[in-house]
Amino acid sequence: MSDKGLTLMLQGTPISPGLAQGIIHVQHSLLGPIDAPVDIQQNNVEEEFSRLDVATSRISDDLFVLATRVEKEIDSRLAEVFGAHQLMLNDSSLREELRKEIVDNLVNASSAVKTVFLRWEKRFLLMESQIARDKGDDMRDISIRLRSALAGITVHPLDEIPDDCVLAVSRLLPSDTVFLTGRPISAALLEYGSTGSHAALFARQMGLPCISGFVDILTGMPHGAVALVDADAGIVTIRPREKQNVIFKKKVADKEHEYRLARSRALDSAVTKDGVTISVLANVGCSADTEKAMSNGAEGVGLYRLEQAYLGRVVPPNSDELLDEMRQTLDAARGCPVYVRLLDIGSDKPLPFIGFLAETNPSLGRRGIRFLREYPGLLKTQLRAVLELAGEFDVHVLVPMVTLPDDVSVVKECLAQLCLERQISPPTRLGAMIETPAAALAAQEIVKHVDFLSFGSNDLTQYAFAADRENAAVEHYYKDASDVIFRLLKLTHDDVPDVPLSLCGELAGRPEHIPRLLQCGIRTFSIAAPLIPVIKETIRNSWCSAPLKRKQ
Ligand code: PEP
Ligand code: MG
Asked: In whole angstroms, what is the distance from residue 156 CA to residue 148 CA?
């Protein structure tokens, strides 16, 4: 990238579709300036303690508000990050160390925060696991928040970006995305962010066109230049010439026309050219998602992420509380099939009431069903709530992070036991999430215990390529639309041709891959609400059968 006043066309990785134009706004630091460290006298120590306590409790409250807002408006998985920040901020050994720093070195609270948090950050950064290193980033985030609070700074820099700009930032942290919710920005350009990252999920959920993969974005992207962003193709044109403007405008008009058409047919079924009816369902986390999805033509809920019912609680919900929460979230989908995914939580997403389970490699540790097997009480509570819900909804159960056949047989047995106690036959169908290569390759064994399979391509990619979906350093390895993934889908279909297959990972929302997914045997797609009309229309223009078998 350079800034010579010439037209530039840059290719990145499209992570959220759409076309937009605007003035580039390069945001160097998403976090505010901080005050300089100051020495203090012995008699000021108490005063600094109390300033620190006030700032800590203010930030803690802010984090709670942020988590609630993100949970409601964006996504429960993003909200988890703020819960984790809150836990770190209130860690007693950290607070002790801060006080000690003030007393021993007679420095003000801000200086103590800077020194101690840097020490902690370094400790985390030296650790081998990515999760631990991410905690280093988290420490920096909290440190700057705390020092900003001590300096009386309340404005987040993203609150001050110009309307309708094309935002260029190194990466979008979960805390940054909150400030973008409801802001009229045109598009975002990033240095880091894979298709399965939180930033991508946020952008798609908000319908924000977004491209990542621009090296040295902060120094190379020309601030103030006009940009045309084609996030369908991953191309940004900087300082376009007249002819490029005209072509782009036509593309925008065509796309708007296509969208209006898709929207007008959104409530009709999605039938392929060879007459196969495909179900298009929605991924939801809160009631607003379900409402939006149903009005956009969703035929039910294909993935209800249950995590948010658990986060931010000091005690786990009982089955009645869970039932209330489920009822509320799914209300708009009454009468349609809904698939509740059992709690998919692990040691990198700690639950406040279970304590921190230290693991060196948490993505490969106790996640999803592995965690529930260790805490069977949690599993039973969820299944009880689902059985109650079955009286009002056409509800089914998804088991997350399955690796072994017994990961699903334990759930089936637990469900059978609960039904026996109630003297009913199981009213719900049971499905396994296929998110690990081992599960894909063991489909024939797994289906002995379940009624259907649902691919989670976000995790399937992470585990197939051994590339953390949130780690910018290995983004290049995270290839969720590669032959490797399609082969795993096709192989599974060939192994269990009569078992219903659905896909609820982000890959399901990318129109260009729909024909190939249909040919891999996928017959149900579950996607973010804004994408439903376009995916339905794409299905209508696709074939299920392979080209050689078609009767044209
Ligand atoms: C997936 O892994 O593709 C999936 C749908 O689950 P999540 O993104 O919630 O991990
Ligand atoms: Mg998953």
From this structure: 10
Q: Name the residue at shortest CA distance from atom 8 of ligand 1.
A: 458
Question: What mean pLDDT, rounded, does the chain reach?
Answer: 87
Task: Answer whether 171's CB lies under 8 Å from 191's CB.
Answer: yes
Nearest to 326 by CA among 311, 344, 314, 308: 308
pLDDT category of residue 420 using cuts at 50, 70 and 90: very high
Query: Which tens digits make up the pLDDT trace of 65-116?
Result: 777 766 665 556 566 777 777 788 888 888 899 999 999 999 999 889 988 8
Calculate the alpha carbon distances from 134 to 31, 84, 122, 203 in Å.
Answer: 17, 12, 11, 21
User: So what's the pLDDT on residue 139?
Assistant: 77
Nearest-atom index, ligand 1, CA of 196: 8
**Angle, to 10 degrees, between the axis of helix 130-150 and the axis of helix 76-89?**
70
Q: Is the pLDDT of residue 350 over 90?
A: no
Q: The domain 277-540: what is its CATH number?
A: 3.20.20.60
Q: How confident is the model at residue 200 (pLDDT cuts 50, 70, 90)?
A: confident
Nearest to 76, CA basis, from 198, 170, 195, 221 = 198
* CATH class in words for 8-30+158-250: alpha beta
Using a cut of 0.90, tell me whether the model's pTM lies above it: no
pLDDT(513) > 90: yes
Tell me the domain boundaries of the chain.
8-30+158-250, 42-150, 277-540
What pairs with residue 279 in β-bridges?
A: 524
What residue ranges line ligand 1, CB within 6 angstroms? 303, 305, 344, 435, 456-459, 504-505
Q: Given the CA of residue 505, which atom of ligand 1 is nearest to it?
A: 3
